[in-house]
Amino acid sequence: xxxxxTSTTPIQAAGCVLWRRSPFxxxxxxxxxxxxxxxxxxxxxxxxxxxxxxxxGALREVVEETGYTARPGEELSTVHYFANxxxxxxxxxxxxxxxxxxxxxxxxxxxxxxxxxxxRDRLTQPRDRELVEKLLRTLC
Length: 140
Fold this sequence. Notes:
Layout: E1 11-21, E2 28-35, E3 40-42, E4 45-47, H1 54-66, E5 68-83, E6 86-100, E7 110-114, H2 116-122, H3 126-139
Parallel strand pairs: 1-6
Antiparallel strand pairs: 1-2, 1-4, 2-3, 2-7, 5-6
């Protein structure tokens, strides 16, 4: 921990609910990432770098974890939870995929593009499922 942080200082993170128009017809698809370290399915997110703006960090994490660039939309919400005994807060934005492609890496070994209903069912954490609903309300 740095001199400015304590065990009660929230870890600052950011991410996106990454979406695209379905290439197979109408509707949209949501990108989920699989992290082998935790064996979970989630939205792309990660810790902010020192001095990094939250939206910049969210878009950086999308590229690092999915290989896709994205156009940010509305901020969806800030999620609060505990990670390894420390409080963590993650700010999320809606973000439309604009290009790129996935290559597996040490942090994320798979991604899936799923319909919103299927994405909700696949997400490991209930707090991540709520973000799908917020995205759909934002896009309507």
